[in-house]
Amino acid sequence: MIILEDKIKDFKNIFKGLQRAHGCTKVGPTNNNGEKVKGQSFVVREHVTDHLWLKHLSGEQSLGIIPINEENQCIWGCVDIDSYAGFDHKKLIDKIKSFKLPLVVCRSKSGGAHVFLFSETPVDAERMRDKLTEIKTLLGYGGSEVFPKQIKLQSPDDTGNFLNLPYFNGDETLRYAFKEDGTAATLQEFYEIYKNVKQLDVGLVKVQRPQSEFSDGPPCIELMAANTVGEGGRDNALFHYTVYAKKKWPSGWQGKVSLFNEKHVSPIYDDAGLNRIIKQHEKKDWGYKCNDTPMCNLCDKKLCKSRKYGIGEEIVFPALTDLQKIKLEKPYYYLNVDGERLYLENVKYLKQQNLFQEACMEQLDFKPPTVKPKDWDMIINPLMKNHEPVEPPEGVTTNDQLQNHLEEFCLNRHIGTEMSDLKRGGVWTDDGYHHFIFSKFYNQFLIRQRWDVNYSRTAQMLKEVCSCEDKRIGKDKISVFRVKQFDKKEDDYNQKELKPKDVF
Length: 504
Description:
The protein is of the alpha+beta class. The chain folds into 4 domains: 5-201, HP0184-like (DNA primase, PRIM domain), CATH 3.90.920.20; 219-306, no CATH class; 320-390, no CATH class; 398-497. It has 16 helices and 18 strands. It has helices at 5-14, 50-57, 89-98, 125-139, 187-197, 219-225, 234-248, 253-264, 271-283, 301-306, 348-351, 353-363, 373-385, 398-412, 438-446, 455-464; strands at 22-26, 40-44, 64-65, 73-81, 104-107, 113-124, 145-147, 163-164, 320-326, 333-337, 340-344, 388-390, 414-416, 427-430, 433-436, 469-473, 478-484, 496-497. The strands form 5 sheets. It has a 6-stranded mixed β-sheet. The longest helix has 15 residues, at 125-139.
């Protein structure tokens, strides 16, 4: 399949995001049943080149783009509706059409849906997230992920989270956009759809929520009232509604709970079940059950805080998502906390709840409520199991540091002019090789650089990582390491000739 350059240009201009990194997904092997095993996704710290866009559209290598850019803005966002079988895309398209929302539905890699909102000009990531959160709750997918997943990147080291793009392998793809009639759109047809739906200001997109007597309370109750709450969620839903009823109708709230049960719960609770919930609330004032089903799938926390009988300043445990582990010998982490980016220095901040709370207070200016140890484990373990690996920044791995130290030592330290200078800590260069005594390099140079890898392991790393060789040279058979001569960088290094009085 021939991919024209203008097609690449159009595609990358639509889905442009962070330039310093991108996402990759390695497909797992095939099992005995012929089914593909779940692959691993990870972030690569490489610039997004035209070659990568071409490889994506030609079906050679799938490309994941991080929508939030270096200025914490984006030109597109997405609701990721995860589903693995039997998702009704046409039903979703019709629902979007009924609300007159300028969205594009694409089939995702898993068979679910990626619902895109496009902006002609960059907008703040927070603005995009807020609008998509409104949209997903209105559509009934409040529990789905929103991209960008953060409102702000922590630092130039932070990469954010990526989304696998549509049209992998061009028109031969299974990740296509849908036309209004529910059929697949070609790549060219997708460009035309995009032109018709892109917005000058996504913040002005109108999200018309159903008006009801519950519009002063949590948005989830408003949406539950517009539909029927079935078994599996009705207990939590009725409990949650009762909290709202007590706030709004301090006298006579019991009757309102009974009425909600009759109108919006199926099958309805019998008198015994209803009285049980009512008695729970007569004994104690409870808080909202925001993190429980079905409320968590209909949640719009920001809107809820603005409503008279919403959560207000009530302390609700934040949503912790998308743990990223920076692949170092001593890794550090990034975590999304209600869409805000949290840096965690080491694994102790995940193991110990009090350290996690301290990090939130220092960086995000709030303290999450304390949960029971077993509940904390239930929160953290899935995050650890499903974490996203991220390549470390260039030059920060132990291997990189050793390579840099060695180069500096050979080019920027006292240079010996004779083989005998080696015993006084010099570097003797001859026949295209730098020669040095390892003990001098380790004890008199590396230790001063706060190097904390032990003596024997460092020696082994010099051989494995830096391609150093163990040699005995000269008449005295001096034991030295040698490495191929580094290119001299006159602007960076100022070599000194080793004089008899110079000792490291």
